Amino acid sequence: MLRSIERNAKEIGYFVNSQLDEMKPYVKQETKLSNTTFHINFGHTILRLLLTRINTLRSITADKRNRKSQKLLVELEKRIQTSQNPLKCEKILRCVLPGSGLGSQMHQLVHCFLAAFGTGRVLVLEKGATMITYGTLVESVFKPLSENCRDRPSPNAVIWNGNTDQNEDVVMVTFGSIASNRGMFAPPIIPLEMKDELVKLMGEPEAWFAGAFVKYAMRLQPDIQEKIDKATSEMDLAPPLVGIHIRRTDKLLWEAQHHSVEEYMRHVVEYYDVKNLETNEEPKERKVYVASDDLTTVTELKNKYPNYKFISGQSASSRNHEGLVGVVTDVLILSKCDYLVCTFSSNVCRLSYELMHTHTADASVKFHSLDDIYYYLAPRYQVAVLPHTAGNSKEIDIEVGDVIGVRGNHWDGFSLGLNRRTSKVGLYPSFKATFKVGERTTCPTYRKQEA
Length: 451
What we know:
Residues 88-370 form the GT23 domain. It comes from Ciona intestinalis. This protein has 451 residues and is an alpha/beta fold. It folds into four domains: 1-64; 85-186, no CATH class; 231-369, Rossmann fold (3-Layer(aba) Sandwich), CATH 3.40.50; 380-440, SH3 type barrels, CATH 2.30.30.40. It contains 13 helices and 16 strands. The strands form four sheets. Strands 9-8-7-10-11 form a five-stranded parallel sheet, sandwiched between helices. Helix 1 (2-23) runs antiparallel to helix 2 (30-60), helix 2 packs across helix 10 and helix 7 packs across helix 13 (347-356). The longest helix is centred in the first third of the chain and has 31 residues, at 30-60. It is globular, with a radius of gyration of 23 Å. It starts with a helix and ends in a 16-residue tail after the last strand.
């Protein structure tokens, strides 16, 4: 209930901010502009106070929810460990990773992982698997996925068909086979036996489920762990700490839009202002961890926001082993921040968010994405909870119960989506629909993995 109230309160804020921003260019007189600014600030204060009250109510049960979440995580981790290290390596799923960056490759790997886990197979990587972007072997940074089943020959491996009915001992998953045949274990999914508990504990349990597999896959080799521990021990990462991930360079060429540092900092400022109201005192320092492939952003942030302390690690822009370690360090730090601001069009951003779920009961209330909603290699769906009649040609009609394929939240009170009942694409008020959870009802229970 609190998540729903908070989500709707924020949607009101997005709508009001958008409407007032549209008015500003038309306000010519200085007095009227001053009045408009006053109303914007007044509205922000009310919204911050409401969010403060919500956070106070949430804190009452925070410890209990964290304990329950960690208990479920420990149980799931035991099953993953058991399924990856059977006494006999009889059924194998071999994953062929595409050549791309850490975030993309890790998401492809976890997709393979869920398929292996759901079909009772052991996931292994092809021999000599490489993080091609960085020119380094996967196992030079991360521990092997299995200690017992590492080098089984598979000259007759066949492509996995996406189901559980294949009898071949070794099946293979490639990027092409994942894209063309997502199968019944493709994310977003959650195990049905945990669904009721997870839905009560968190807003996006699918991200929690994926995060458990990300955590396992990103277990570090001892020398890399030691190196990262040393680097982070020299940084001031004590809470409160907000993390921002600013993706620039090649990402802007074909996948994402440019977002100014002011857009990121707007939500950082908002977080600390709400924090100030909660505690009735200003934090000693307003700290921000900056992860970016363009280190000029750190200089820009320091120049524009001198009252904030900006922290950054080693360069994550290098396309070599050290660059990979830098990105891994960024992901691990971002996942442990108290709040995360980034763009979900970035795999690194979503990876950090998924991993964040392994550290806190409900990471869905601890982030803001400047562009996409959370997704995992596939569209998300919502169900309409209130009807809506289109007010103009850009909007669509929806009825209670309509399933909507979400194509994006515009962060102005409206989302863009496809109404599957009418096959029409358009805008609808974001607060009138809610995300479906665990819609893949064919997702099996996983207790049999322990047998």
